[in-house]
Amino acid sequence: SLEKSFHDNKVPDMRFDMSVMNGRPSMARIGKRDYDHLPADEEGISTLLILTILSSGGLALLLFYKLARTIGGEVHVAILVVMAACLTNGISALCELLHL
């Protein structure tokens, strides 16, 4: 024990390496274990990001069409704000998708 071998009250240094990986259960069904460093909560995030890009881009195009139809007339400021929000949301999702 430590009490018998170390009388100088100094705890010995301990060094270790630890790697946390996720096992994919879909691969376990076919007899393989596939491990990944991507956190388990980000498993289907690429599909969600693609849907976000498509929906934000579609809404931004729809609002741009509404804006282009009323050239020379009055445009509500909410259309411009929501269109800018859709564009920034789509760009953010695209950057996140490229980051994966």
Summarize this structure as a short list of keywords or feature phrases:
100 residues; mainly alpha
Task: Outline the structure in words.
- Strands 1-2 form a two-stranded antiparallel ribbon.
- It contains 4 helices and 2 strands, in the order αβαβαα.
- With 100 residues, it is mainly α.
- It has helices at 2-5, 25-28, 45-69, 77-99; strands spanning 22-24, 34-36.
**Largest sheet report:** 2 strands, antiparallel
What class do helices, strands and sheet pairing give? mainly alpha
Shape: elongated
User: What's the number of extended β-strand segments?
Assistant: 2
Summarize the helix and strand pattern as letters: HEHEHH
List the helices and strands and how they pair.
Layout: H1 2-5, E1 22-24, H2 25-28, E2 34-36, H3 45-69, H4 77-99
Antiparallel strand pairs: 1-2
Give a short summary of the structure.
With 100 residues, the chain is mostly helical. The chain contains 4 helices and 2 strands, in the order αβαβαα.
